[in-house]
Amino acid sequence: MARAGLTGSRIRERRSVLGLRQAELARQAGISASYLNLIEHNRRRIGGKILRDIAGVLGVDPAQLSEGAGVALTATLREAAADRPDAGAEAEAAEEFAGRFPGWARLLAEQHGQIGRLEQSVEALTDRLAHDPHLAASLHEVLSTVTAIRSAATILVETRELEPEWRARFHRNIHEDSARLADGAQRLVDELDAGQAQSAAPVAPQDEVDAFLALSDGHVAAIEAGRDPETALEGASFGSSAARDMARRMLTRMAQDVAALPMDRLAAALRDQAGPVPDPSALAAGFGVPTGLVMRRLVSLPPDLRETLLPAPPGLVIADASGTLLFRREVTGFPVPRYGAACPLWPLFSAFSRPGVPIRQGLRMAGRGEGRFTAFAIAEADQPLRAGEEPVWRSHMLIWPDAEVADTAPRVGVSCRICPREFCRSRREPSIMARGA
Amino acid sequence: MDKTVLLIEDEPNIIEAISFILMRDGWRVATHSNGVDAVGAVATRRPDLVILDVMLPGRSGYDILRDLRAAEETAELPVLMLTARGQTRDREMAEQLGASRFMAKPFSNAEMLEAVNDLVRS
């Protein structure tokens, strides 16, 4: 992303890398130190001869200063090189390449990002049953009904001397099942239609932000390294300015989180942590920071630390007071609905009834794998409060896979439409899984 | 023959059809239709073979299979897993947990009979 306005910052950055004093650079470039100071703070536009002279002293191409090869761009190039080692790209020359051919470098970086996103959509499409619980439930219903019909029909045709009572019973079963099959097939068609409509529709800003985060698996190295959100956004492309704004807000929050709880402190505490699943409220108490902040930090750990320090990668859901999901990081076996509302039995929502009180709750996920999880939830004010100010409440729920959870733990669902839980007083609408409806 | 099969499945019409063909084939058929106490049902009935659906109310067939394999008396019991999603992942999961055989819905009656008879013979 070219930001001509930041030429001064790049000059300052390059100068500090070389360990050159401002006065010295000014002298060599033939301008006054105070003028260079204004340039470096982006308070004077710079171009032409002065830019060429400064670039000459700094030993870089003028375009690298005016258009910004940028740290993020170089990092992306190195990443691209590392992804395809066989191509033999000279990773150590990434910066020089970006400096000499900024346009080509940006093209390569953008294509690298695009490839990542496309690989993800291909994966999602190939395994649509795993990514779309509604579709999986409808298909299961159809296949079960077909099995019953096929079996009963074969019995009617192949069994010699079938007693009239049996014959009548299988006829009736086929009749019932054919009605169920017709309904199920219609729902399946609806699901498939809806799937097409979704992919054709413009992507929601939240989806773009999610995709941006998913690219790096939740870990944004630039933010972790203390760079500003603008730098971290360099090279990322968004379809709408709303998405870019949301991403910037999210990265700003992430940068605040990093400042409040640096990675090495969190890693040290995790190493000392006892018990099968880390308790974010205990960690938060130790650090004197909000529990929600610790939860956000836990899902933004770099992959290598996540591997060594955590029992499993956790999931995280964040909701505002309306119950709208603001953030979702899924964990296998605990899907979070993309569209529409989630299961009201999640501790994410009950946490709102006792703000500030951390909840620990074993959960069983109804349907499909019937997986077991330990969830930690807390509703907290989003910012430190002042008298006379209304708090903005956010509820966080961190989800750990946990096979140790007892059989007596509450059973929760994903969302009503696909939930097999029977006799649920919280049910909002009938389930499409006919047996539980 | 006089062998007992325990059918753990929750679709009533599938239960009826499978029970019928197995009985005509000479099996004693017991049925059980929820996941929660399925392991207990196996222990009480002591069948020669279990047909186990993956998607059961209350508890997944995979969890039930894991428990059966962990217990000494049922570690070697032939178990035929049924699933409505014949995906590779489900098949791998079933094999990993020690299913004796795996069958994707919709199957034919003949396939079912062949599978159960193979399982008690081997």
Automatic annotation (TrEMBL), chain A:
Superkingdom of origin: Bacteria
Domain (HTH cro/C1-type): residue spans on this chain: 11-65
Assigned keywords, A-Z: DNA-binding, Transcription, Transcription regulation
Molecular function terms from GO: DNA binding; DNA-binding transcription factor activity
SUPFAM superfamilies: lambda repressor-like DNA-binding domains
Keyword Transcription in annotation: yes
Pfam families: HTH_3, ScfRs
GO CC, alphabetical: cytosol
SMART domains for the chain: HTH_XRE (SM00530)
Protein name: XRE family transcriptional regulator
Organism the protein comes from: Primorskyibacter flagellatus
Lineage of the species this protein comes from: Bacteria, Pseudomonadati, Pseudomonadota, Alphaproteobacteria, Rhodobacterales
UniProtKB/TrEMBL annotation, chain B:
TM stretches of this protein: none
Keywords: DNA-binding, Phosphoprotein, Transcription, Transcription regulation, Two-component regulatory system
Entry superkingdom: Bacteria
Taxonomic lineage: Bacteria, Pseudomonadati, Pseudomonadota, Alphaproteobacteria, Rhodobacterales
Domain Response regulatory: start-end pairs: 4-120
Species whose genome carries this gene: Primorskyibacter flagellatus
Gene Ontology molecular functions: DNA binding
Coiled coil (UniProt feature): none
Modified positions (4-aspartylphosphate) in chain numbering: D53
SUPFAM superfamilies hit by this protein: CheY-like (SSF52172)
Pfam family, one: Response_reg
GO-annotated biological processes: phosphorelay signal transduction system
Protein name as it appears in the record: Response regulator
